[in-house]
């Protein structure tokens, strides 16, 4: 019994390089049910690709995740500070209007 080999041999490095260059998507769903009643569905999606390839296809969520990027924390903090400032200004404006209405209503209560 003879063992046949192909003319091309791929090392693990070659295979890994091709996978990272092109990307691989593995998708699967797990459904748990009893008597045709679905109790739980788990959707599993795994994408294996290089960072450059992921960015090329629009996947850059790790750049905005505060657990993975210090820049995301800074952006999130700035956004919260700006929102807080706007809310403070709005609250002060509403309080001034409310005070103005109270003053006007007491002038006409004679």
Please describe what this structure looks like.
There is one protein chain. This protein has 110 residues and is an alpha+beta fold. The protein has two domains: 49 residues, no CATH class; 45 residues. 50% of the residues lie in helices and 21% in strands. The protein contains three helices and two strands, in the order H-E-E-H-H. Strands 1-2 form a two-stranded antiparallel sheet. Strand 1 and strand 2 form a beta hairpin. It is elongated, with a radius of gyration of 30 Å. The chain starts with 11 loop residues before the first helix and ends with a helix. The model has no long low-confidence stretch (mean pLDDT 81).
Count of domains: 2
Largest sheet: 2 strands, antiparallel
Please state how the strands of the largest beta sheet are arranged side by side: 1-2
Structural class: alpha+beta
Which characteristics define this entry?
structural molecule activity; Gas vesicle protein; coiled coil; two-stranded antiparallel ribbon; gas vesicle; 110 residues; 2 domains; 2 strands; 3 helices; alpha+beta
List the helices and strands and how they pair.
Layout: H1 12-22, E1 24-34, E2 37-48, H2 51-56, H3 70-107
Antiparallel strand pairs: 1-2
